[in-house]
Design brief:
This protein is of the alpha/beta class and 501 residues long. Helix content is 39%, strand content 12%. Helix 7 runs parallel beside helix 14 and helix 15 packs parallel to helix 17. It binds pyridoxal-5'-phosphate (PLP). Catalyzes the conversion of gamma-aminobutyrate and L-beta-aminoisobutyrate to succinate semialdehyde and methylmalonate semialdehyde, respectively. Can also convert delta-aminovalerate and beta-alanine.
């Protein structure tokens, strides 16, 4: 088959780099070079031009003529991209550790997904996109059970599908506000005044409820979500927003084992502030109906907190009658070594609502039964996701289970983290605060300029990395990222650090 031919291509540049780095003594010491263990992966990066190359630059210019395309890194050739490798339009093949902002679960062009698409009985699911809320296909419930519900977080029996992460959070907020109002209303009926006032954006029909969020958090760019997003000013500038409480998120000191007491105090300070804000806002007649939090603040700089912090936060939510919403849009799907990152916390009472997207192929949210809307069309949009994505997700979950990819994330993550810690010890002026769970790893650089330079150099050496926060580099590989990919990266990056000026 065609992809086999590409896999067998001789990686001259990779070989030269390896020989050079061994001679120059820069090689990341302990590990073997890359090998192929999946039949659709390439054997290493292969670079022909700098990135973006001439063809990418030409296409960027064209696109920029019809929209602001300044965010485009380069144009891709998805036909040629395989496994952990992204190929660009100039023929450069790069080890992709960013995987489309963390959204490719089992690599590019996975044979199982290709097979799924080739099955004639699946064709109509891809061709006819339904308005799922009113006209679902016959197998819709069965596919939801086979896909999303088969991996539902403990205690959450209900699921709604959506099209993206922001859309999922936005609708989760609505479900929480409706739940809160229903609690307050008790057995009373909706009043005429509520029905009339909501039409002009006024209470009591539009109650003064709020979602509490954290500084550094990112929950999307739509209007409601943006009120809970506090990662970068560029996302928020010029957009009117809501007076909702924003709590500090712990800023942990590393290495964690050297700062146990300081970090405990920092977490206690943040939790105290959460409670104070809930009380303060209530005094202003603004009720905190829910708390939203990411298990690891991702866009905001890969900020971690301890499992204990989250357990206590869950308790605070319960104590004050607030819904507890865990945003697993970036952390969900297995990259931390558990299907949901919040499973690491060991909650005795599950989260009330969990949102997802990215690696889950479809957006949406799981929730407890009490968060079901009490009437149709209250949580609704035209598509409500896309059944073709549920079909693909069912296959992705099958691959995750049969190939034991959660354990793989733990294992490969350990190889990556160990290597990063070693590099941190050797280049402390360039790398600090190495942290991670599974393959969801990151480190800090001294500043924004150094971070961006490292990302650019790595890309030209055949490794795609992502930035987050103001000076962090984050790893978001696919679930088929193995130990040998980690060592391949560490070898390349070790050389980059040794030669960095
Ligand atoms: C934690 C989190 N929530 C929400 C979103 C928004 O998702 P989307 O970009 O699909 O709207 C993101 C996107 O990066 C995210 O990381």
């Amino acid at each position: 088959m065609r992809y086999i031919v590409h896999v067998r291509q001789f990686n001259v540049i990779g070989l030269i780099c390896q020989v050079f780095s061994v001679i120059s003594g820069h090689r990341y010491i302990s590990q073997a070079a890359a090998k192929i263990d999946v039949d659709f992966d390439y054997d290493g990066p292969l670079m022909k031009t700098e990135v973006p190359g001439p063809r990418s630059r030409e296409l960027m210019k064209k696109l920029n003529g019809i929209q602001n395309a300044e965010a485009v890194h380069f144009f891709c050739n998805y036909e040629e991209s395989r496994g952990n490798y992204l190929v660009d339009v100039d023929g450069n093949r790069m080890l992709d550790l960013y995987s489309q902002i963390s959204s490719i679960p089992i690599g590019y062009s996975h044979p199982s997904l290709i097979k799924l698409l080739q099955q004639p009985q699946n064709l109509s699911t891809f061709i006819n996109r339904p308005a799922l809320g009113i006209l679902p296909p016959e197998n819709f419930t069965e596919k939801l059970k086979e896909s999303l519900l088969s991996v539902a977080p403990k205690g959450l029996s209900q699921v709604m599908t959506m099209s993206c992460g922001s859309c999922s959070n936005e609708n989760a907020f609505k479900a929480i506000f409706m739940w809160y109002r229903n609690k307050e209303r008790g057995h009373n009926n909706v009043t005429k005044e509520e029905l009339e006032s909501c039409m002009i954006n006024q209470p009591p029909g539009c109650p003064d409820y709020a979602m509490l969020s954290f500084m550094g958090g990112f929950h999307g760019r739509t209007l409601g979500c943006l009120a809970t997003t506090h990662s970068k000013a560029i996302h928020k500038l010029d957009i009117p927003s809501l007076d909702w409480p924003i709590a500090p998120f712990p800023r942990l000191k590393y290495p964690l084992e050297d700062f146990v007491k300081e970090n405990q105090q920092e977490e206690a300070r943040c939790l105290e502030e959460v409670e104070d804000l809930i009380v303060k806002y209530r005094k202003k007649k603004k009720i905190v109906a829910g708390i939203i939090v990411e298990p690891i603040q991702s866009e905001g700089g890969d900020n971690h907190a301890s499992d204990d912090f989250f357990r206590k936060l869950r308790d605070i939510a319960r104590k004050h009658g607030c819904a507890f919403l865990v945003d697993e849009v970036q952390t969900g799907g297995g990259c931390t070594g558990k299907f949901w990152a919040h499973e690491h916390w060991g909650l005795d009472d599950p989260a009330d609502v969990v949102t997802f997207s990215k690696k889950m192929m479809t957006g949406g949210f799981f929730h407890k039964e009490e968060f079901r809307p009490n009437a149709p069309y209250r949580i609704f949009n035209t598509w409500l996701g896309d059944p073709s994505k549920n079909l693909m997700l069912a296959e992705v979950i099958k691959v995750i289970k049969t190939e034991d990819l959660l354990n793989n994330a733990t294992h490969a993550g350990k190889a990556l983290l160990t290597g990063l810690l070693d590099l941190q010890a050797r280049y402390p002026h360039l790398i600090s605060r190495v942290r991670g769970r599974g393959t969801f790893c990151s480190f800090d650089t001294p500043n924004d300029a150094t971070r961006n330079k490292l990302i650019t150099i790595a890309r030209n050496k055949g490794v795609v990395l992502g930035g987050c926060g103001d000076r962090s580099i984050r790893f978001r590989p696919t679930l088929i990222f193995k130990d040998h990919h980690a060592h391949l990266f560490l070898n390349i990056f070790s050389d980059i650090l040794a030669n960095f000026k």
